[in-house]
């Protein structure tokens, strides 16, 4: 199993739009990607602008299929509209995703 984790911070006043987009992405991902085990955005209890996105996939191929999916590509293009680059896992407009493999 592969777990992908990314953090995004909304521009002030854009958190509602960002959350709506991420919830829609989660729904599309879970409904349309067979290799996706779970895909969930979590809002920080300390900062309502900050969202952690956790995706779990059966293997690396399933993660790559997610990255290439039309619904992910649409969101990727929209990121600069509502996400701050400062203090984010975003570099040059690209979302930095931390990948973890299950130990056991």
- Which structural class best describes the helix and strand composition? alpha+beta
Indicate the proportion of strand residues: 25-35%
List the total number of helices: 3
What's the total count of β strands?
Answer: 6
| CATH topology descriptor | Alpha-Beta Plaits
How far apart lie the N and C ends? 10 Å
What helical percentage do the residues reach? Answer: 25-40%
Number of domains: 1
Radius of gyration based on Cα positions: 13 Å
- Principal-axes shape call: globular
- Architecture (CATH level 2) name: 2-Layer Sandwich
CATH class: Alpha Beta
User: Taking all residues together, what is the mean pLDDT?
Assistant: 89
Reported for the largest beta sheet, the result is:
4 strands, antiparallel
Q: Please mark out the parts with pLDDT under 50 across 5 or more consecutive residues, or reply none.
A: none
Strand order of the largest sheet: 2-3-1-6
Instruction: List SSEs in N-to-C order.
Output: EHEEHHEEE
Describe this structure in words.
By secondary structure, the chain is of the alpha+beta class. It has one domain (2-101): Alpha-Beta Plaits (2-Layer Sandwich), CATH 3.30.70.100. Helices cover 38% and strands 31% of the residues. It has 3 helices and 6 strands, in the order E-H-E-E-H-H-E-E-E. It has helices at 15-32, 60-68, 70-82, and strands spanning 2-9, 36-43, 50-57, 90-91, 94-95, 98-101. A 4-stranded antiparallel beta sheet has the order 2-3-1-6, covered by helices on one side. A two-stranded antiparallel ribbon has the order 4-5. Strand 2 and strand 3 form a beta hairpin. The longest helix is centred in the first third of the chain and has 18 residues, at 15-32. The N and C termini lie close together (10 Å). The mean pLDDT is 89. Residues 2-91 form the ABM domain. It comes from Sporotomaculum syntrophicum.
């Amino acid at each position: 199993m592969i777990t992908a984790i990314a953090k995004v911070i909304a521009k002030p006043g854009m958190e509602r739009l960002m959350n709506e987009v991420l919830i829609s992405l989660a729904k599309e991902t879970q409904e349309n990607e067979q290799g996706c085990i779970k895909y969930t955005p979590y809002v920080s209890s300390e900062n309502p602008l900050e969202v952690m996105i956790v995706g779990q996939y059966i293997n690396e191929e399933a993660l790559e299929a997610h990255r290439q999916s039309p619904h992910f590509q649409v969101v990727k293009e929209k990121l600069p509209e509502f996400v701050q680059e400062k203090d984010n896992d975003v570099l040059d407009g690209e979302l930095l995703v931390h990948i973890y493999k299950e130990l056991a």
